[in-house]
Amino acid sequence: MTEQGQAAGAHKTWMGRHRNAINVFSNWVGFGFAAVVNFFLSPVVVRYLGNTGYGVWVLTGTLTGYLGLLDLGVRGAASRYVAKLYTQADHKGSSQVVSSALGIFAVGGVLAIVVAAILAFGVLGIFHIPAEFQSQARIVLLLTGVSVATSLLGGVFGGVLTGLQRFDISNVIEMLGVALRAVTFVLALKAGQGIVALAWLNVALSLLTGLANLAASLHFYPQLEIRGSHCTREALRMIFSFSAYFFLLVAANRIVLFADVIVIGIFLPVSMITFFAIASNLINYARTLLSGIWTATTPLASSLEASGAQEDLRRMLLSRVRFASLLMLPIGITFLLRGRSFIGLWMGPSYAEPSGMVLQILTVYMLITSGNLISNATMLGISKHKTVAPVAMSEAFCKLALSVALIHSYGIYGVAWGTTIPSVVVGTLFWPWYVRRTLQIPLRSYALAVWGRPFFAAAPYALVTFLVEKYWLASHLALFFVQVALVLPLALAGYWFVCFTRAERQHYAELYLQPMKKALRLA
Predict the structure, then answer these.
(1) Best mean pLDDT range from 23-27, 123-127, 491-495, 507-511
(2) Could you give the number of structural domains in the chain?
(3) How confident is the model over 345-384, as pLDDT tens digits?
(4) How far apart are the C-alpha atoms of 299 and 382, rounded to whole Å?
C-alpha cells in the first residue's frame, strides 16, 4: 500500500471510530461561529436601529418565536426515529416518519402565517410600542410568520441529518446561513434600511437553508423516499407518541426563552428590552457551545439504547454532564466577576451597569443548569422524558409568575431573578433524583460530576480573574480577551488534574492524541 493509501486508510479509520467526537467538535465550531458572528453583529444592529428600534425588533422576534411551538415536537421525534430506524436498517420506516412529519408541518406552516396575522392586528397593541414603529412591527410579524413556515418544513431535513449524526454537514449549512445573514444585514442597515428589510432577508435565508438541508439529506440518505403515500397513520401515531411530551418540553423552553421579553414589553418601555437582551444574548452565545454537546447526545443515546448498551449509556451521561460544566465554568466565572466591564467595552459605558447586573443574575442560572441540559437530552434519546415534561412546564410557569411579580419592584433585575430562582430549585433537586431513578446513577456521583469537581477545579481561575479585574482593568476589548486567554490555562490545568483520574488522562491521550499523531506522520 502506498503512503497516500496508508494515510487515507488511517484517516478513514480515525473518522469512523471517532464520529461522536467529530460531531461534538463540529457542533462547537458551528455554534461557536454563530456566536462570534452574532457577537460582532449585535452592536452594529443596535447602533443603526437605536434602543427603541432594536427593542421592537427583539419583541416582534419573540412574539413570533412562540410560533415555533407549531413544531409540536415533531422534528425531535423525526430525529429520534431516524437515528433508531437507520441503525436498524429500516429505511421504509424512516421514509414514512419523514414523509409524515412533512405532512404535519405543511399544516403547521399555514397555521404559522394565520397566527402571525392575528398577532399583528390583534395583540400588538398591548405593548408599549411608539406610534412610528407600529406599522413596521405588523409587517415584520407577518413576514416572520412566513419565515417560520419555511423553517418548519426545512427543519424536517435538518432533523434527518441529526438522526444520521451528520452534524458536520448540518453545521456547514448553518454556518453559511449565519455568514450570509450577517453580511446582508450589515449591507441593508448601512443602506438605511430598517427592521422590515431585515425581516425580508430572514424569509429568504430560511428558504435557502431549508433547500440546502433537503439536498444534503437526500445525498447522505439515498434510501430515503419522500412520498405522500408514505404519510401513514402508523407513522403519525409513532411520531405523536413521542412528540406529545417532547412538545411540552419545547413549550416550556419557549416560555423560558421568550417570556422575559414579553413581560418587559408589557410593563416597561420597549427600550428596556434592549438592556435585558444584551445580557441574555451573551448567555445564549455561551450556551451555543453547550449545544455542541447537547444536540449530539440525543441521537447517541438513542443508538446506545437500541444496542442495549446500558452501562455505556451511564458512562456517556456522566462524562458529558461533567464536560458541560467544565465548558461553562470559565465563561460563567468571567461573566460573574467581569461582566459589567465586558459589556461596557463591548456595547458602550451606558449599558455596563443595567445589562451587567442582569448578566450576573442570569449567569447563576446558566452555571446550575448546564449539566442538566445534557441529562435532558439523554432522556429524550431514550424516551424517558414523560416525567420531565410536566416538571419543565411547572418550572416555566413559575418563572413567568415570579417575573411578573418582581418586575414592579425591581424592573429588569426582577425579571432576571424570576428566571433564575425556579431553575436553581429544579436543577439542584429534580435532576439528580430523576437521573438516579432512571439510570441508577448515585446522587453523589452525579453531583460530583456536574458541580463538585468542576467548581473546585475552577477555583484558581476564579481567584486570578478577580485579581485581574481589581488591579488590571482592560481599556479595550482586545486586551480583555488577552487577559482571559492568559488566565484560562489555570482552569484547564485544574480540570486535567482534579476532574480526571490518572486512568482517564491516559485513556484520553491514547484515544485522541496518539492516533492523530500517527495519521499526521503517515500523511
Answers:
(1) 491-495
(2) 1
(3) 999 999 999 999 999 999 999 999 888 888 988 887 887 8
(4) 9
**Sequence-distant (≥ 6) Cβ neighbours of residue 31 within 8 angstroms:** 171, 288, 289, 291, 292
Whole-angstrom Cα distance, residue 104 to residue 395? 28
Residue with cell 429568504: 204
Report the 10 Å Cβ neighbour count for 491. 22
SS3 string, 102-163, reads HHHHHHHHHHHHHHHHHHHHHHHHHCCCCHHHHHHHHHHHHHHHHHHHHHHHHHHHHHHHHH
**Within 10 A of 42 (CB to CB), how many other CB atoms are there?**
18
Sign of CA dihedral 267, 271, 276, 277: positive
What 3-state class would DSSP assign to 437? helix
Dump pLDDT digits (tens) for 56-111.
888 888 777 666 666 666 776 777 778 777 777 778 878 888 888 888 888 888 88
Q: What does the H/E/C string look like for 196-228?
A: HHHHHHHHHHHHHHHHHHHHHHHHHCCCCCCCH
The range of the structural domain enclosing residue 436 comes to 3-522
- How far is the C-alpha of 92 from the C-alpha of 88, rounded, in Å? 11
Backbone angles phi, psi at 473, to 5 degrees: -65, 135
Q: Which three cell numbers stand for residue 22?
A: 467529530
Provide the whole-model pTM.
0.74
Residue with the three cell numbers 465548558: 327
> Are residues 403 and 412 in contact, defined by beta-carbon separation less than 8 angstroms?
no
Give the alpha-carbon dihedral of 438, 442, 446, 447, to 10 degrees: 130
Residue indicated by cell numbers 448578566? 359
Grid cell for residue 522: 503517515
Tell me the C-alpha distance between 198 and 316, whole Å: 42
Please give the grid coordinates belonging to residue 358. Answer: 442582569
